[in-house]
Amino acid sequence: MKKKKESLRASILESLKSRNKSRSKPAGKPDRPEGTLIASYNVHKCVGADRRFDPERTSRVIHEIDADIIGLQEADTRFGERTGILDLRRLERETGLIPVPVAGVTKAHGWHGNVVLFKQGTVRDVHQISLPGLEPRGALIAELELARGGSLRIIAAHLGLLHRSRAQQTRLIVDLMSDGGEIPTILLGDLNEWRLGDRSSLNTFQAAFGPLPPAVASFPSTLPLLALDRIMANRRGMISAVEVHDSPLARVASDHLPIKAVVSLETLESEAEARSQTA
């Protein structure tokens, strides 16, 4: 118990340091870097920090982010027959985001609440993975051919609340990476891990993704202290530093803040050229 409290304290202190650094930046909206903007957002079944169910508000936050690819978690009702909560057709009309198709579901948006939306490109392949553990959890794997050039594999996941379950789930995802590991891959989602250091279940990911990027606090949205949401890539330099999308609307629309990063198109194009030369 003492070690757990020390780990939580260290995690909170690290998050406070990150927040202080971000507050020292000049005010104003930064210019969007060149590349493909990706994001991850646990929409909390469209229930906000004010406990109000408001899918319209959630959609407005997605508008704000303006991502080219975004992974959503908890986008379906959780119990019984899963049913999608957002108006995806309206979202497509207004933002150009379309969902990666998921087989075998009728009313749900995604797989175990995981949805991947993208703006331009084509879907090459989709896999729906059931993750081990006591809770029903899953990962959605989508291989996309981007209109701007290059191929990209997205693993959108929502890991369990129990440490033992997360340990099993991270090992399975790393095992999946061995199949097609040459594809530039980004893992994103609510990984539900606040621990830092040796006890973190995320350390397993280093085998496939290398050293973990710095933690960025995204939970709870009203006072972010814990880095439960993550974006990581299996190529060094493929994504920019991960940031939170921290707006007044995002602070209340869910109990998580969205996080985002920019994919380097040059990296993807170089990968595609190298594969074509060896084909």
TrEMBL record:
One Pfam family hit: Exo_endo_phos
Stretches that traverse the bilayer: none
Chain coiled-coil ranges: none
Hydrolase as UniProt keyword: yes
Domain of life the protein comes from: Bacteria
The keyword Nuclease belongs to this UniProt entry's keyword annotation: yes
Protein name per UniProt: Endonuclease/exonuclease/phosphatase family protein
Protein source organism: Rhizobium tropici
